[in-house]
Write a structure and sequence with these properties.
mainly alpha
């Protein structure tokens, strides 16, 4: 399956896609982009930008833990990210502190833990640069198979649970009164978002992971007139940005980091959408 998809992408009239690693990188981005776009829309509407940022930075501690224990860093990063996401929800539910405060405490703890581990073993600092800045070009068949399985799971959760998630985000007490299983949807969304965020870290790095979620969704909000339209526009913008950023970064005259180039393209789309929206509002006024 992976081979067939890569061969199909290699048939595109783009020179850089003749290389196998570029085909795999593009396939990974095309699988990841719709998930980050959809979850990004929800992150904006549910006001969870700080939540996703905390999970993204937990990758730093997860990688440090894997290097310290001589385990596969990608696996420890994924497992630690999910635990952090679930831990934030548990802290919010079991304490009287605000959600922002709970996220801030966990965010500080995981970053401090990662820095403490790195400072204890200075030789690991160089190994962590890949995860700080991301490197989608190193994605392999195993990660692609996981993304192929994850995409329909994300789609299924959205189809079955969007209304419930929206109710929980707006008012958990009211959602519970209407028969929504609040705890189930909170933990499920946190775990799902954590997994997607961690894969996004592999693509664009810890420093840019929140931008990958937020910028296409923010651009879609400037263009669309409904929540449904916002979802579709976010997917289109995210996919186009990923494809354009990957191809541009591979050009000899540019030779920039792939993740950073993808975010720059997304930000250009956002700037254009903001300008066009202001022009339209000015004409109507």
């Amino acid at each position: 399956m992976i081979e067939l998809l890569c061969q199909a992408l290699g048939a595109l009239p783009v020179d850089c896609l003749s290389h196998k690693f570029m085909q795999q990188a593009l396939l990974g981005l095309l699988l990841l982009a719709p998930m980050t776009a959809v979850l990004g829309v929800e992150v904006i509407h549910f006001r969870m930008s700080f939540f996703s940022d905390a999970i993204g930075h937990s990758a730093f501690a997860g990688v440090a833990l894997g290097l310290l224990l001589s385990l596969e860093p990608k696996l420890t990063m994924l497992a630690f990210g999910v635990l952090v996401g679930l831990g934030i929800v548990a802290l919010q539910r079991r304490s009287n502190i605000s959600s922002d405060l709970a996220i801030g405490v966990v965010f500080s703890a995981v970053v401090a833990f990662g820095l403490a581990v790195v400072s204890r073993t200075p030789g690991t600092a160089r190994s962590m640069q890949q995860f700080l800045f991301g490197d989608i070009l190193t994605i392999g068949p195993d990660e692609l198979r996981f993304l192929l399985l994850l995409l329909p799971v994300v789609a299924l959760v959205q189809i079955l649970g969007f209304n419930s998630l929206l109710c929980v985000a707006l008012n958990p007490v009211m959602a519970r009164a209407h028969g929504v299983h609040v705890a189930f949807w909170q933990y499920l969304f946190a775990a799902l978002l954590a997994v997607v965020v961690i894969f996004s870290v592999w693509a664009v790095g810890v420093l840019l992971v929140t931008a990958l979620l937020i910028v296409p969704a923010a651009c879609a909000r400037n263009i669309s007139r409904s929540l449904r339209g916002m979802f579709w526009w976010a997917i289109v913008i995210s996919v186009v940005s990923a494809f354009t950023g990957l191809v541009l970064s591979a050009q000899p005259w540019l030779s920039t980091a792939t993740g950073a180039t993808i975010i720059v393209v997304s930000c250009l789309f956002f700037a254009l959408s903001t300008l066009s929206r202001r022009c339209l509002q000015g004409r109507r006024a």
